[in-house]
Specification:
alpha/beta; about 200 residues; globular; two-stranded antiparallel sheet; single chain; Rossmann fold
Length: about 200
Amino acid sequence: MKNKPPIVGITGGIGSGKTTICKVFETLGAITYYSDDRAKWLMENDSKLIIGVKELFGEKAYQNDKLDRKHIASQAFKDSSILEKLNNIVHPAVARDVEEWASKNQNAKLLLKEAALLFETGSYKSLYKTILVTAQEEVRIERVTKRDAHRTNEDVRDIIQKQMKDEEKIPLADFIIENDGTKSVIKQVMDVYNHLIVT
């Protein structure tokens, strides 16, 4: 890669293990921007975004200056038009935040932007390359129910059904990392990393 490290996107459906793959890249010197975590932080700290969220969900969206995720999820996931409006105010704020983050980390070997909705939002088009993390559905369900005690198998299956299918994402991705225990994750990450660093 050239002087300034371009940003490489990393994505995958719920339970695919994106975070695990990012951690492996980080051992090689990559720096990761975790979009979902930053979006949550921005929704509690970016005044312009807070106003937008309150306009959409009302004052109940915040309890003691903390985002009431249950209140928001209960509305956003029942009505796709509300979810779309929420995305339309959150994504531009995240995009601005990514630019600031990238400018602060220009000396990194590799910059990764981890995001669940990379292809769905079209934000992959602004990235240098994209990595898709995949796993079998049953593996994903097992991972999520172990991680999130409040979610049932049916909950996770419902989320997977609403997400863009891997078959649709694969043609859009530059690299695929299979993360369901059938192939060495470290070898796959090393192969991708070496390709990105030398090109």
